[in-house]
Amino acid sequence: MFRRLIALCLTVSLAAPVLAADPPADPPPFRLLTSDVMNALVQPRHLKLGLAGQAGNWAFADYERRNLQGIFRRWAAAIPDYQGQKVADMIQVTVAEPLAQLDAAIKAQDAKAFKAAYQALNEGCNSCHAGTGNPQVVIRSPDAGAFPDQDFTPPPGN
Ligand code: HEC
C-alpha cells in the first residue's frame, strides 16, 4: 500500500513538468470587443441599477449609475469606432440624456421619475442597437433578481 503510494507520487512528480508547460513568452494582448464590453460590463450594471432603483436603494443606485456612465466613457475611449460609426457620438445621442435624468431622479429619491428615466435608458440602449445593425439585442427593465447573492434593499440608516 505504502509502496504503491510512493510509486504514485513519483509518477505525479515526473509528469508535473509536462503538465505545467510554460506560457508563451510574449502572449498576445487580450482585447475586449464591443460585445464583451456590453455583456460583461454594461449589462450587469444596467441590471443592478434597475434592481436598486426598484428597491429604493438610492445610495447603491447612485453608485451603479456612476459605474454605468463610466463604462460608457471608457468604452468610447478604448474602442472609438464601431464599424465606421463614432462610439462617443452614438453614446451622446442615445443614452447621455437618460443617464442625466436618472441622476436627477436618484438625487431626488423619486421612484416614479426613476422608472421613467430607466425606461428612457432602455430605449436609448435599444436605439443604439438598432442603429448599429443589432436590433436582435433588446433591453428591458428587469422583473426578477438575477443576483441571488446580492441584497438590493437599502441597508439600515440609508
Ligand atoms: C452607443 C451604442 C450602444 C449603446 C448606447 C448600448 N449598446 Fe449594447 N451593443 C452595442 C453594439 C454595437 C452591440 C453589438 C456588439 C457586437 O456583437 O458587435 C451591443 C450589444 C449588446 C449586448 C449583447 C452582448 C452579448 O454578447 O450578449 C447587450 C446585452 C447589450 N448590448 C446591452 C446594452 C445595454 C444594457 C445598454 C444600455 C444601458 C446598451 N447595450 C447600450 C452598442 C450599444
Summarize model confidence as the mean pLDDT. Answer: 88
CATH third-level topology of the domain at 34-131: Four Helix Bundle (Hemerythrin (Met), subunit A)
Identify the overall geometry: globular
> Going across the major beta sheet, what is the strand order?
1-2
What is the rounded Rg? 23 Å
Low-confidence stretches: none
> Main beta sheet, described?
2 strands, antiparallel
Label the CATH architecture of the domain at 34-131.
Answer: Up-down Bundle
Helical content band? 55-70%
| Through-space gap between termini | 63 Å
Number of H- or I-type helical stretches: 6
**What share of residues are in beta strands?**
under 5%
Structural description of this entry:
This protein is mostly helical and 158 residues long. It has a domain of 98 residues: Four Helix Bundle (Hemerythrin (Met), subunit A) (Up-down Bundle), CATH 1.20.120. It is built from 6 helices and 2 strands; from the N terminus they run αααββααα. Strands 1-2 form a two-stranded antiparallel sheet. Strand 1 and strand 2 form a beta hairpin. It starts with a helix and ends in a 27-residue tail after the last helix. The mean pLDDT is 88. The protein binds heme C (HEC). Heme C (HEC) binds next to helix 2, helix 4 and helix 6.
